[in-house]
Amino acid sequence: MSEQETIHQFRLRARDWLASHAPATIPSRKDPEYLRVAREFRRAMFEAGFAGIDWPVAFGGQGRTAAERRAFEEEASNHILPLVVFDIGLGMCAPTILSVGTDEQKRRFIRPMLDGSEIWCQLFSEPAAGSDVASLLTRAVVDGDHFIVNGQKVWTTGAEVSDWGMILVRTNPDVPKHRGLTMLVVDMQAPGVTVQPLVDMTGVAHFNEVFFDDVHVPLDAVVGEVDRGWDTARVLLTHERLAVTSGGGTAGGSSGPLSFAGLKAAAESSGILAEPSAQQALVDFYLLEQSLRLFNDRITRDVLRGVDPGARGSVGKLLQGELLLRGGVLAAELDNGDVVAGDAADELAADVLFTPALAIGGGTNEIQLSIIAERLLGLPREPASDTKLPFRTKPTTKEGAA
What we know:
With 402 residues, the protein is α+β, with helices and mostly antiparallel strands. It folds into three domains: 3-117, Butyryl-Coa Dehydrogenase, subunit A, domain 1, CATH 1.10.540.10; 121-228, Butyryl-CoA Dehydrogenase, subunit A, domain 2, CATH 2.40.110.10; 233-376, Up-down Bundle (Butyryl-CoA Dehydrogenase, subunit A, domain 3), CATH 1.20.140. The chain is built from twelve helices and seven strands. It has helices at residues 3-21, 33-47, 66-76, 87-100, 103-114, 229-246, 260-270, 276-304, 312-334, 347-354, 365-376, 398-401; strands at 120-123, 139-143, 146-153, 164-170, 181-187, 193-198, 207-218. A hairpin with an 8-residue loop joins strand 6 and strand 7. Helix 4 (87-100) packs across helix 6, helix 8 runs antiparallel to helix 9 and helix 9 (312-334) packs across helix 10 (347-354). The longest helix is centred in the last third of the chain and has 29 residues, at 276-304.
């Protein structure tokens, strides 16, 4: 059987499986049932061989080709699937562990992420370290065979349902800010971890603030190297921008209410799909969505070949934010304007209300534009006075003020 025939057969199997297993209805993300439905569907995906399609078999993947993964994603994009809760783990944390983690970390963590039994978050931003993440204050001090972590993170997506997290902490304040950071795996149920959900205007706690008070983290929880956490963070941020661009790392692609499939369903429900103008708007959106998918696919192929996509990930992230903002406007038009009332109890309305966050999370649009300008277009960097000084000397930090 040729490669094309193999991909076609895999696509047909995926199409049939999704037709019989994709949930007819999905509970609201505010409903406690959502998590149960999501875990059960993720487990079913794993058992059917549609999770980690092109990931290593040794760590729970299927060991198939990237082309077969893309075939599944294309079929999955025709359905609205309960997978968003796994986006952080599968789109960001797992690829980072696969890239720079130890074999023991890969064996311990990858499979439970793939089968949905463990949910992950990433903990970067702080009240005084948002766009400038390297200015973070959360400390980790070695005490025997553990780090002791103290500090606060904010805007942490999914922390309220997460079992594990990847946290960036400061382990050496006596070197410049980018050189004294370490990435750790932290148990989100450990003593001293406090999660406080932040309810946004959709009525859902998409984000959280998380407090760490003398949290013990084993020394072997380091992902990458001690004091080289910025290198690991850049790997994760690259995967984050790829995940955001592709609609998440769930192998479901763009399958939410603001995807082509979701918008088409809304237009059918409202009866406006028969209008030529609505059809044209959907075609335009579909073409833009597919263009972005192809862009992301090209970068993903580079990553799989070991080529660092660099700042190109920022292009995809910027375009994805713009695409979904456009999707929010289109949703209001296709829903006959009913969604503009801002009914946060309605799933589509909630997604429309959430679209401004997409231009902020994962690095603001302004940050992406700066990265593109400096690293792709070769424009000069903005002056910075704190990149070569020991972090402890910064007068605006608690370390410097001490």
